[in-house]
From TrEMBL:
<dbReference type="GO" id="GO:0030436">
    <property type="term" value="P:asexual sporulation"/>
</dbReference>
<keyword id="KW-0808">Transferase</keyword>
<dbReference type="GO" id="GO:0004674">
    <property type="term" value="F:protein serine/threonine kinase activity"/>
</dbReference>
<protein>
    <recommendedName>
        <fullName>Anti-sigma F factor</fullName>
        <ecNumber>2.7.11.1</ecNumber>
    </recommendedName>
</protein>
<comment type="similarity">
    <text>Belongs to the anti-sigma-factor family.</text>
</comment>
<keyword id="KW-0749">Sporulation</keyword>
<comment type="function">
    <text>Binds to sigma F and blocks its ability to form an RNA polymerase holoenzyme (E-sigma F). Phosphorylates SpoIIAA on a serine residue. This phosphorylation may enable SpoIIAA to act as an anti-anti-sigma factor that counteracts SpoIIAB and thus releases sigma F from inhibition.</text>
</comment>
<keyword id="KW-0418">Kinase</keyword>
<dbReference type="InterPro" id="IPR036890">
    <property type="entry name" value="HATPase_C_sf"/>
</dbReference>
<dbReference type="GO" id="GO:0042174">
    <property type="term" value="P:negative regulation of sporulation resulting in formation of a cellular spore"/>
</dbReference>
<dbReference type="GO" id="GO:0005524">
    <property type="term" value="F:ATP binding"/>
</dbReference>
<feature type="domain" description="Histidine kinase/HSP90-like ATPase">
    <location>
        <begin position="37"/>
        <end position="141"/>
    </location>
</feature>
<keyword id="KW-0067">ATP-binding</keyword>
<dbReference type="InterPro" id="IPR010194">
    <property type="entry name" value="Anti-sigma_F"/>
</dbReference>
<dbReference type="InterPro" id="IPR050267">
    <property type="entry name" value="Anti-sigma-factor_SerPK"/>
</dbReference>
<dbReference type="Pfam" id="PF13581">
    <property type="entry name" value="HATPase_c_2"/>
</dbReference>
<dbReference type="GO" id="GO:0016989">
    <property type="term" value="F:sigma factor antagonist activity"/>
</dbReference>
Length: 148
């Protein structure tokens, strides 16, 4: 294990828990002293990944979502995993505006948003076994203000 700090949580795939996930990850990341913009980017990416797990992974049933966060230096790695439906075609799912649930009026921008706000996004999925999304972001080190 090559990291300086680590946390792991699991919770039910209820839509109310999406905001909980955002807050928990933001609280953990805050030790890196991110800018407000960096923190907002991370919270948005986490929100998209958790929402995808709830809506697409589990079809709104109450199942387990796991989030792990690892800090190494000024890098954060966030892993969000469900054990649901899986993604049949990852490359298709990554296309902007694609949604497997058009009847729900979904925008189809989840992966595009994650890829825009994070430095790296990796998706592993297996049909009927679930999806694991790994997102990484480097937090800029800010210059210390003069103490005079």
């Amino acid at each position: 294990m090559n990291f300086q700090n680590y946390m792991k949580i699991e919770f039910l795939s209820k839509s109310q828990n999406e905001s909980f996930a955002r807050v928990v990850v933001a609280s953990f990341v805050s030790q890196l002293d991110p800018t407000i913009e960096e923190l907002a980017d991370i919270k948005t990416a986490v929100s998209e990944a958790v929402t995808n797990a709830i809506i697409h992974g589990y079809d709104n049933s109450n199942e387990k979502i796991v989030i792990e966060c690892k800090i190494n230096g000024n890098n954060i790695e966030i892993i969000i995993e469900d054990f649901g439906n899986g993604i049949e075609d990852i490359e298709l799912a990554r296309q902007p505006l694609y949604t497997s649930k058009p009847e729900l009026e979904r925008s189809g921008m989840g992966f595009t948003v994650m890829e825009t706000f994070m430095d790296e996004v990796f998706i592993k999925s297996e049909k009927n076994k679930g999806t694991k999304i790994e997102m990484r972001k480097r937090i800029r080190i800010r210059a210390k203000e003069n103490e005079e």
